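ligand=zinc ion
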Amino acid sequence: MNILIKNGKLVTEDKIEDKEILIVDDKIKDLKASFSKSELPSELKIIDVEGKYVMPGLIDAHTHYNLVSRGTVAADKFYEGSVLAAFGGVTTVIDFSDHLPSKEISEGTLYRNSEATGEMAIDWAQHQVITRVDGDVYKELENLKKLGVTAVKIFTTYKSAGYFIEKEPVKEIFKACKKLCLLVTIHAEDDDIIEENSKQIEDKPYPPELLPVVRSSEAEYKAIKDYGEIAGSLDMPIYIVHLSSSRGLDAVKESKANGVNVIVETTPHYLTITNDFLNKEGAQKYLMTPPLREAEDNEALWGGVVSGDISIIATDHCTFTLEQKFQSNDCRTIFPGVPGTEEMLQIVNTDGVEKGLFDITRLVSLLSSEPAKAFGLYPEKGSLEPGTDADILIFDPKAESVLSNDTCHTAAGYTPYDGMKVKGRAETVILRGEIILDDGECLGKRGNGKFLPAGLPGAYKK
Ligand SMILES: [Zn+2]
């Protein structure tokens, strides 16, 4: 479709401009103060946005749609996940592929893409999880890179579940990733500290309020320091997923002071809600790992966003229905994870921009340009440059609403932000020139999303 968006304020990571934007087919054709009639195609839809913001479509760089784990499947499958994402102004997600048993690493990506293809209504890229080293890891990662996956994820915890990798094989993975310019992303919680803290539980009940005690912020601190040291010794970047605590942020700052290039992501839940919820009825709805922390941690993380130590906000969207969540009240068996992709934009606008911590250009940086750069999708995604994919969010910053279990679109049927007053709304969302959301109605089609082969991660660009 050809579209002219008029009277908008174009927002990118570094500026706001009064310009018109012309979309021809699936690409941004040009941006101009005003187009003359002769420059416009004869078939044209004109959208007058009356002073609203026009920005690149958002990217949620951390989702687990259709997650199969512990004998169940997440509530939001690929289609449901991509639809609720569109409601939140998101046109691209980066999801995770498992390391399949007795298969080489890249088989995980192939399998995951075979499941997502034909289902997703928005575009997606993949991160590939690595949980073991079987043979020639360099060769396996080379095969992965050929598929267009340039970020891997490792765990510093979950030894008993088989996710943890010992230090020596980890170094092998790091070295191979450096050679191939792959970004290593890390779930950072020190397993030894968690095991030590677990001794007080052993065969006793393990209710939600004990999760922050066992999975302490010291565990996050230690893991970031240790893996930061490995990265530093090899002179390579690392990416910390879902930073949860003030202590974790200390470790980031210390590692950076030691010269390590640490890229850091946090999530809306670690920024805005606390472990008070874990002491109340229905605590399971708020259970994820790492666990929710204290109000001081929320504040410290916002400080990290403002200082630039945290450059990306993503959601770790991983949902279960209330029936799934409430089948246990023991942390060993509660399915962990919360919704977030739909709420991300409104929360960051309300608690970041509206509270004066930063302006709307930084919101675009945190939720679109930086994740695109970090994961090798820029400028095709995360920018408004002529010639790139026409993924556009028309954002009304003043619309007021209340996040609610009754109106959220997740198949989980609840939002951890129920009752939160928010400002701003994704009014219209365009994916590669097609309108996929308009005034509260999702027009995105199942299967219209496509897999995005990722290029060189930004941290490897000279
Ligand atoms: Zn995750």
